[in-house]
Amino acid sequence: MKLIIEGSVFEQPFTGVAKATLGLYRACSKIDDTLHIMSIYRRRLHGALPDENRGIRIFSWLPSRIWRGLAIPISARQYKADVVHYPWNGGIPMMSHRGITVMTLHDVLPLIIPGYLKTEHDRARYCRMRQRDISRAHLVVTVSEYSKTQILEHFTVKHEPVVIYNAPTLRCDSGTLVKTHKEGGEYFIYVGGYDPRKGLESLLKVFISLFQEGKISSRLLLTGTKTNYSDAFRRLVCEGLETGAIDERGYVDDDELCDLLRGARGLLYPSRYEGCGLPPLEAMSIGCPVVAVRSTAIPEICGDAVLYCEPGMDGDLARAIVALDGNEYLRGSLAERGRKRARQFSWEESAAKYLSELSRVLHSHGELVGI
């Protein structure tokens, strides 16, 4: 089977979608050694692709929108691809090819998050674009039953989306701590982007207050690309840095992230809007206790293996942080339950289901077009 990936997701730092895409195809290659994978991209990649995923940079001089509409379909035809996969929520061009088109629609959270789409025009445009992508795809993949339900509620589909769960992508094989001995005290960690939907403002308010009142002595390490999305958030970051309550690390590679998670008292993940929630899953997989919000897809992924707080309840979040900070038995119990829960998500199982779905759709498509 010849498969092309629209590889613009690999032009960014390898987080979230990029890591999940690589994890899926790494497992697919182990199952099916006849699978030939090629990623097509426009700009220089942020990191190296694995051996099983050949990468080709073409037409880099074209503007982004024109590039996607020409480079991928032309490459698919020249390569005689059986499958073209758009792993980053769509962007499927009009031009077709002989094989099937697969789209991973991770979520439709812009329709769920209050105020994300500022006007009715923005909402209509988003719906129009996603509906176009869904209609052009032969197979729509999503990452949770929650996301599937939301897609079915808001869009017209020819066939129901197929849920292919993400699995942990961190490779923490050494079992040794390298960098966390240098942290100089206990700490919690946040992993993820600086985005309003992640609940970081609430987390910083709560954490800084607890720290200044002496209810906790642990710091909070923030990992992820450093961006300020509001004046209030910027002020909170400055206050946290000045008081020693927080430490910004920016983007960290997987080796350092493994160490940081292993040494943390817990992952604090206050996001209320998630189509999957990869950071809690990865934290659980290596025994890092998790505090998370009981909302959207988080309970589906985390089960009973994390300490939940209710959406919008800062007092709940504060109590959870204090409890986790001061209770070694609770941390140990959550770590054990987390490892057990994370083992229910495997790239091998997800890849096997994905390959089965590809074969099914390819067979139906071949019968339809007479291939």
Quick recap:
The chain has 371 residues and is an alpha/beta fold. It is 43% helix and 15% strand. The strands form 3 sheets. It has a 7-stranded parallel sheet with strand order 3-2-1-4-5-6-7, with helices on both faces. Strands 8-9-10 form a 3-stranded parallel sheet.
Which terms summarize this structure?
Rossmann fold, single chain, three-stranded parallel beta sheet, alpha/beta, seven-stranded parallel beta sheet, 371 residues, 43% helix, 13 strands
Folded structure, characterized:
With 371 residues, this protein is of the alpha/beta class. It contains twelve helices and 13 strands. The protein folds into two domains: 2-167 and 346-369, Glycogen Phosphorylase B (Rossmann fold), CATH 3.40.50; 180-342, Glycogen Phosphorylase B (Rossmann fold), CATH 3.40.50. The chain has helices at 16-31, 64-79, 120-136, 145-154, 200-212, 231-243, 254-263, 278-285, 298-302, 314-326, 328-342, 347-369, and strands at 2-6, 36-41, 53-57, 83-86, 100-104, 139-142, 162-163, 187-191, 219-223, 246-250, 267-269, 290-293, 307-309. Strands 3-2-1-4-5-6-7 form a seven-stranded parallel sheet, sandwiched between helices. The protein has a three-stranded parallel sheet with strand order 8-9-10. Strands 11-12-13 form a three-stranded parallel sheet, with helices on both faces. It is globular, with a radius of gyration of 21 Å. The two termini are 14 Å apart. The model is unreliable at 176-181 (pLDDT under 50).
